[in-house]
Amino acid sequence: MFSKTSSFFVFEHTDTLQQYVFLQKKVMFDALRPQVSSIIDSNKTPDAKMQDICELLKASVPHYDWVGFYFKNGDKRELKLGSYAGAPTDHTIIPFGKGICGQVAESNENFVVPDVQAQDNYIACSITVKAEIVVPLFVNGENIGQIDIDSNTPDPFTKADETFLEFINFEVAKIL
């Protein structure tokens, strides 16, 4: 798996390093799951619960620099910003098809962007953002919104992030 050279561990294979990172994240996300469920089960309003989740994720996951929920805005083909934690954004309304969030509103699929500079249809929220992940939120089979994570770290998202954010949305769907 790894060999010890002087006082440093040297990983012999990239796959091994990726497995290590995946396992580290899995441990972190597994520790956060009961906290998320506790927030969902609290007596707070749905908006307060989502705000608490945003703040928990931003504070607990080092590569989550902005965490927010966008929701379908009534019958309009646009998303409206809901609860979030991080720097304020001018992007409070996003048309379907525009940017990563708008594309997810149409595709109904997770969208992981390891390098936002390489993405043609990207809405820049901050010059510090390097990567983004957006996971749709379904209620009764309908895509009603999404969780959006911006990271100032290049290419930080793995399958562990996707699986965890799907869990978040599954829990949030219970209160909507």
From TrEMBL:
Residue span(s) of domain GAF: 50-168
InterPro entries listed in its UniProt record: GAF, GAF-like_dom_sf
Lineage: Bacteria, Pseudomonadati, Bacteroidota, Flavobacteriia, Flavobacteriales
Protein name per its UniProtKB record: GAF domain-containing protein
